[in-house]
Amino acid sequence: MLRAFSSGNFSLFYTGQAISLIGTSMTQVATSWLVYRLTDSALLLGVVGFASQIPTLLLIPLGGIIADRTNRHRILLVAQILGMLRSLALTWLALSGTINVWYITFLGVLLGTINAFDIPTRQAFLPQTVGKENLGNALALYSSLVSVTSMVGPAIAGLLIAAWGAGLCFLLDSISYVAVIIALLAIRTTDKKAVLSTRKPLEELKTSFNYAIGFLPIRSILISSSLVCCVWGFYLALGPIFAKEILHGESNTFGFLMTASSLGTLAGGIYSTRHQNVHGLGKILALGIGFMGMSLIVFALSRVFWLSLLSLLAAGFGFILQIIAGRTLLQLLVSDENRGQITGLYVMASTGAVPLGNLIAGALASRIGVVNTIILGASICITGSGIFMQQISTFRNLVRLNLNANNS
Known about the structure:
58% of the residues are buried. The chain contains 15 helices and no strands. The protein is mostly helical and 408 residues long. α3 packs antiparallel against α6. It starts with 7 loop residues before the first helix and ends with a helix.
């Protein structure tokens, strides 16, 4: 389960990310709760979530191209420094009492722009810290790390918000950036030779897009990841409302809900580190979508706190199964020459779908209610899982042929 830690570079990368991601998850919870407290509006909650990630959706293809043409190590360092400065600005506004929803929105747009370059570069850089034979294990361990930090961060944030307010969460997030910056400076790895291309960025993007859409396994990964992340965005946007209005809780209630879903993703990540059959990842991907959908329906209908926690734990398990299976297959199917570009398309389809889910959730919730909104999104996931299962044989055969060609 821990074989990827035999690489010193991966250990450094993992440790820095562990500290920084706790701060990031604390800020996410604190921001959502602060926006809802300032506005008392489901629509604005969705709008802020959308605004904070729409730059990622628009700019991430460019970020992927730059990741293939430039030193990835250097890009990550610059992105982390800019992220720290942005978090410090948010801290100052919160602690000085001058913060409002428009400042939060602007700084969210800034963070989304930074992430457009950081995320695809990080995904493309990770294989450089570990051998190909341990790549699948490294991806599962990293996904488990995201789950753990997403579980610990919200729980801490709920307590800190109740006692001292959101400003302290933002301050701790600013400090946490120091850890990942130090880890990146300590990593010693030979950066892959940058791709020299005479084609314009739009031409490269078109070529990568045509390849991804024309190859069934990658197309299926992109579509399924977009679906689950969009619906997951429903839950992330409407979570504070469920905590306060449906379950009649406070800020720590929202933190516990986030912790439950993160605990589910942790369990899924641990399961994935032990899963060795690459050719069975397609089936896991499809089943994860359906399991997440069914669990979210239970969450939407629940009025009991412990049942809501259990249903979100199950939903998180299904969600991360799809994410890890898709991400592992993608990294194995693409070459290093276009890894940044294809990874950029994947992140655009997955991470970029979250703000779309935020916006749709806010608009739908104001018309049909938060419960019906979650049920609708979950039902689409179940339908998508059924459609995917009908194509699983073709999917598996194409994956096997591609992997055999890469190994020959």
